[in-house]
Amino acid sequence: MAKHVVLAGAAGFLGSHLAHRLLLGGYQVTGLDNFHTGRVRNLSHSMDHEAFHFIVHDIREAYIGKCDAVMNFACPASPPDYQANGIGTLKVNFQGTLNLLGLAKSSQASFFQASTSEIYGDPEVHPQVETYRGMVNPIGPRACYDEGKRVAEALTFEYQRQHGLAVKVVRIFNTYGPHMRPDDGRVVSNFITQALRGENITIYGTGRQTRSFCYVDDLIEGIFRLFESGASVTGPMNIGNPVEFTIRELAELVIDVTGSKSTVINLPLPEDDPRQRCPDISFARQTLGWEPKTALREGIEKTVLYFDNILKQPENVQAA
Ligand code: NAD
Ligand code: UDP
């Protein structure tokens, strides 16, 4: 009998790709999502699969069921999304994670938590290694997400210590690709949408801040390998692309790939915006034999094709 995974956040950007990868890997998958930022269309390649079941569920409420593994990918991930209701974001990360840990405990299942590079805040150590404890502003506008994710990690490892739960934590660095929402406010989706619509490309601050962008297929492969690795590999483990770009370089690349006539403009830098971010992936390389394969240009080309199609859908066509 195929192992049964309960995957929270299955209709989201990453959750939908992960659901598909788990089904390909022979797992039975029950997806949970409340469609806060997820979309039904993201599940089009999984919905007809006989081993996939979907339940509309908010993880801030308990979910009762039986399974072999619980994976928690439910949480808005874009700053405008998670800041729109900061208390809700804190509840998803505390109460939601607690509920899913309870589900894993009652099923004697393993638990896998999607954590984030935001754990490191505005880092003073560069690139970021898993042992670095971070520099997070606990009362700033990003705290609902950063501190929420930190408490989710703390809860996960308390369940391991106190209840002997088999746990794993991945720290995901900026990821992009198909299934992102055009209006989700993250930099890759903003720049591509703006370039395709011929709107101004909005660089926040000087554009000298850096991020390291991982194409979604690479990320999902790393996550799948971590999920299937031996129980002694708990993480936290960084998964991301260690090639660092400035935000200005990203804007130039998007203009080049789309052939857009858009103009770059500078807007104020949001409070607490990290100045640099780049993963040290030595742990993933050594433990999983994993590293990303997709160069930024290639990944942006694939993502532009997806957005070009999505922006032609009636709900995304802007009134003239
Ligand atoms: P996303 O917003 O596309 O997906 C999140 C999903 O969770 C959505 O389908 C949403 O509807 C669902 N959700 C939100 N609140 C919920 C609730 N209370 N109950 C049930 N479902 C709920 O974001 P994503 O990029 O796919 O991120 C997925 C996970 O990966 C998140 O935990 C995020 O923190 C983490 N992560 C993502 C990135 C990235 O670059 N994409 C980076 C670091 C960490
Ligand atoms: N950013 C930008 N223009 C945008 C959206 C974001 O310059 O339209 C910047 C943002 O200030 C940050 C970087 O791009 O420095 C990455 O932002 P994103 O929201 O994608 O992710 P995060 O800040 O969580 O890494």
Protein model, in words:
- The protein is 37% helix and 17% strand.
- The chain is α/β, with parallel strands linked by helices.
- The protein has 2 domains: 4-175 and 214-239, Rossmann fold, CATH 3.40.50.720; 177-212 and 243-277 and 295-315, Alpha-Beta Complex (UDP-galactose 4-epimerase, domain 1).
- The strands form 4 sheets. The chain has a 7-stranded parallel beta sheet with strand order 3-2-1-4-5-6-11, with helices on both faces. Strands 7-10 form a two-stranded parallel ribbon. A two-stranded parallel ribbon has the order 8-13.
- α5 (187-197) crosses α9 (296-310) and α7 (247-258) packs across α9 (296-310).
From the structure above, extract its key features.
single chain; 7-stranded parallel beta sheet; binds nicotinamide-adenine-dinucleotide; two-stranded parallel sheet; Rossmann fold; 320 residues; UDP-galactose 4-epimerase, domain 1
Bound molecules: nicotinamide-adenine-dinucleotide, uridine-5'-diphosphate
Would you give the CATH topology of the largest domain? Rossmann fold
What's the CATH C level of the largest domain? Answer: Alpha Beta
How many structural units, i.e. domains?
2
First CA to last CA: what distance?
Answer: 54 Å
- The number of helices is 9
SSE series: EHEEEHHEHEEHEEEHEEHEHH
In the predicted model, the low-confidence regions spanning at least 5 consecutive residues are none
Order of strands, main sheet, comes to 3-2-1-4-5-6-11
Please give the CATH architecture of the largest domain.
3-Layer(aba) Sandwich
Tell me how many strands there are.
13
Please state the structural category: alpha/beta
Report the helical percentage: 25-40%
Tell me the major beta sheet. Answer: 7 strands, parallel
What is the name of the CATH superfamily of the largest domain? Answer: NAD(P)-binding Rossmann-like Domain
Radius of gyration: 19 Å
Mean pLDDT: 96
Question: Which geometry do the CA atoms define?
Answer: globular
